[in-house]
Amino acid sequence: MNKLYLAFDIGGTTIKYSLVDAELHFSAGDRCSTEHNRDGHILKQLQSITADYQKKYTLNGIGISTAGIVGDEGQIQYAGPTIPGYQGTELKKVLVQQSGLPVIVVNDVDAALLGEQLAGAAQGKSAVYCVALGTDIGGAYLDHGQLLNGAHATANSLGYTLYDQQSKTNYEQRASTLTLEHQLVDLKTSVPVAFDKARQQEAPFTTIINNWAAEVATGLANIILLFDPEILLIGGAVSQQGDFLLALLNRALKPLLPPDLCQTELRVTQLADRAQLFGAVADFYN
């Protein structure tokens, strides 16, 4: 019998969901708005969608990828201002009680990494670190099948690292993709177009992109030296820049690492916006 799992991916503005079968095929997927979680809208939506799917399909489990820090009981332990009123939401408890199914809840960056190991760029690798570059910067570390999140589930909070006293900025304030977008506003240029222009060696885009890559590399160097992963995955929409992005980052890393010491390979993620959906249900395939 082909098992079916219901996968959710909860972001700041959108909830994506889909069925995933035993062969990792997606079907019956859709998306809806979080409505900024007004009156607990996110949990209510998950309950409504779950009830609807259970009427139509025989489900074997539910997986949830979500923004925020996830506690041991599948609750939202911490949520920033992106999703108001989300902190403390008992996702797992409520859905287990409603559905009678096993429910897995995992942070979205962790989910992206789990998805890439299940069906993407990290397949077959035992020690993998993932850096998600976007509005902020998140990290996740998978070591021999175990997500390492620290004693209080707040490890890998990369964005808050590398605080600079002079500029009063942390890592993500200097190296996020959002920061790069802000640097391009006066030039009326998007990040993808800026990369295209940098490929053509067009000023000032070459300098802007190189400087941004150098900022990103400062965080990557610390990850490589501290964790020594087999693979360091670069995720987020900017990962679509592929080999060009990897060449920029590898070049920027050279002066930051001792010669001939580090063997970590940089890769970009492969699964794009499906990584979190794969990762939400990844534990059901182990």
TrEMBL record:
The keyword Transferase applies. Pfam families: ROK. InterPro entries: ATPase_NBD, ROK. One of its GO terms (molecular function) is kinase activity. SUPFAM superfamilies: Actin-like ATPase domain. Belongs to the ROK (NagC/XylR) family. This is Glucokinase. Keywords: Kinase, Transferase.
